[in-house]
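Subject: mismatched residue count in predicted assembly?

I count 308 residues in my input, but I want to confirm that the predicted structure covers every chain. Input:
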Amino acid sequence: MSTFEPLTMTATKSPGADEVDQVNGADTNGTQARVGPTGRPLREIPTPPPVKEHGPARVLAMCNQKGGVGKTTSTINLGASLAEYGRKVLLVDFDPQGALSVGLGVQPHELDRTIYNAIMEQSCDVRDVLRPTGIEGCDLLPSNIDLSAAEVQLVAEVGREHSLLRVLKPVLGDYDYVLIDCQPSLGLLTVNALTAAHGIIIPLECEFFSLRGVALLMDTIDKVRERLNPDLEITGILATMFDPRTLHSKEVMARVVEAFGDKVFDTVINRTVRFPETTVAGEPITSWAPKSAGAEAYRQLAREVILR
Ligand code: ADP
Ligand code: MG
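Triage response: the counts match. Full output below for your records.
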């Protein structure tokens, strides 16, 4: 086997994958109201009514220039949960690493056409690149390493920041949500995602260094809003990799709430090995371990997103 052959693994479920333990690590505070990990009182987030017609889509960019914070995991699982609520969803892999595509069971290096072609070739229709996923109601615009060339080639283009928006426009009427999985950088691809988006979801891991770099992200968002997309808003901050057993996680959480207030989603995603498992399985946690706390958390996030 060559050193560079992709690792093949069979997904194994960890024991207890079907139990709902504590969703969101709720604390009981004596006789007082139960508080969530955000420090706010726990509240029920209502189940959204079904939709009769689809579109026009609300476009959300999952964005943080730090890697490994849960952008791709959240794109897949929020998308799958929105689809469970009857929403039509398009997931856009906008990272040349193609992790979103892999997480949905697609081998990106085997694809003839990816989002790269839709962006760079006028003759390539976005509908020829779109593909269904194993999740009902959820389509994928896949990418692979070709997309890294687009970043260089686009620099010389007129209207380079609007390239993704141009590609998405013809299909916005077909979906309720378009989720863009951004690459871990603030380069031209991410600026394209922010230009195409109505809102941004920023996943932040509950770790000491998580807030570093967020100021730079906010700067970029402000610039895009000023120069390219005046209506761009921050839909929410999503705390990920929360460990309810550690004081450290709680301290970071308190800092995040202090910095962003109501922008922080009530939903907090706990750290659990079930997420790495789902990547190997190539499916969302909502089907891999449908009754797990992780699946429940992303369903709750979907309800919050629909409400916002
Ligand atoms: P990003 O897209 O921001 O780089 P990923 O979603 O790819 O981040 O997550 C990075 C790694 O962490 C992946 O291996 C993923 O399976 C794992 N992961 C994501 N969310 C969690 C979580 N809540 N708990 C544990 N591991 C997680
Ligand atoms: Mg990613």
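Residues 79 and 112 are 25 Å apart (CA to CA). Marking this ticket as 'not a bug'.
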